[in-house]
Each structure stands twice: as C-alpha cells, then as structure tokens.
Amino acid sequence: MGEAKNRQKTGKPSPLSRKRRRQRLIGGSLFAAALLAVIGGVFWLTSPSLSGPTALPTAEDQPPFPAERDRLGVRIGDPDAPVVVREFADYQCPACADFAANHDRLMEEYVEPGKVRFVFFDLPLRQHQNAVPAAKAARCAEDQDAWKPMHDRLFERQNDWSSADNPQRLFSDYAASLGLERRAFERCMGLDRVEREIRESRNLARDLRVTSTPTVMVDNIPLRRANWAQLEAVIERELNAAQ
C-alpha cells in the first residue's frame, strides 16, 4: 500500500506536513517575542515611572558647572532660580529639533514660575554648513528681544534652510515675519561680535568636553537621554533637594 493511501487510512499527517506546522509555530513564536521586545523597549524609553531616583543620573564624579560662564549663553528666567537647565545645541541637528519640542513645557512649568533658569549654548557642529549662520540669526533676534520666537522658527523650518546655499535670505524673511526690524537684523548678522559670541560658546563646550548635540544638563548633571521624562524627573529631584 502506498504511503499516501496509508495516511488516508490512518489519518496521520505526513512528516512534511508536521515539519511545516512546526515551522509555522516557531515563526509565530519568534514574531510574538520580537513584538513584545519592541513594546517593552518603547515603554522603557518613555515611561517616567522607570526614571525613579535610583535610575536617574547623578552629579557623582561630575565637576561643578562653571556658572560664571553662563554669560556665554542665552539666559532665560530668574537668575536666583534653585535649578539651572543648560542645553548645548546645533540648529541644524535633527535631534536638537526633537528636543526643542519640550521647550514650551519647560518654560511654562518651571522657568516662568521661577523654579528653573534656562541657558542655551550654541554648539554648531563643523559638519553642518549652515549651523553657524542659524546661530547668528537667533543671536541677532535676541538683540530685538525675539530669541525664543526665532529659535522656534529655525527648528520648525530646519528642512527648508539646512541645505540652502545661502540661508541668509530665509533668515531675514523669518525675522520680518516675526516682526523684527529687517535692516537692523541684517546688519547684526554681519557683526564680529556675534561671531565671537558663538565661538566662545563653542569653546566652552570644548573645555567641558561636550561633543554631541543636544547635550542637556540639570545643574551639572548630564542627562543620559534628552527627553521630557528624564528632564522632568531630574528637575523635580533637584528641586526637592534644594528645599
């Protein structure tokens, strides 16, 4: 009697059929395991509950931040605030644009109530051809009390000016649309003073061995992950310690 006819009589599956079934089961199990790993990873990265005191970065082995050099950055908030958040950033850096989405919340919840002072340092990376002109645009907007609006506009329109051969015209258009005096803004863009401010900010980063952007510090504590969950958790811990 042939093997096929014998299986029809006995009802037993063929070895090939059993092998295929095992492969489907193994494949399904591997897919489920991979899916659980992805979900777990996302939860670990975003869950503030896992950023408890024992999981957060501390000031251990970190030298004090040279607070007198905060003058090299753009300073926002009460000079006597108990906590200082410092950011080294590059306007052409996509990760910096992602972190900048947290700024409004930081201002509203901590800077405006006087709990935190925010200091922004320019760290234009050398591989980004338009990072220095963008930093100059923000500094020149600061001269007309519009640093934050220009800072936000630069990150919002990052894709528009990053690859431009000459982004100056775009920056002047941004300034005009924000209500700045265009001629004063364009004169400022050519000043040696602004170049010097950005150079000194970059030199500070070099002295502190800050090489990547965004680098975010709460007082002298560098965050391991530049996201809101960790930033908020470290700020709250330091505020409680300051009381």
UniProtKB/TrEMBL annotation:
This is Thioredoxin domain-containing protein. One of its GO terms (molecular function) is oxidoreductase activity. Belongs to the thioredoxin family. DsbA subfamily. The chain crosses the membrane at residues 25-45. Coiled coil: none annotated. It comes from the Bacteria. Residues 56-240 form the Thioredoxin domain. It holds the Pfam family Thioredoxin_4. Keywords: Disulfide bond, Membrane, Oxidoreductase, Redox-active center, Signal, Transmembrane, Transmembrane helix. InterPro entries: Thioredoxin-like_fold, Thioredoxin-like_sf, Thioredoxin_domain. PANTHER family: DISULFIDE BOND FORMATION PROTEIN D, GLUTATHIONE S-TRANSFERASE KAPPA. The keyword Glycoprotein does not apply.
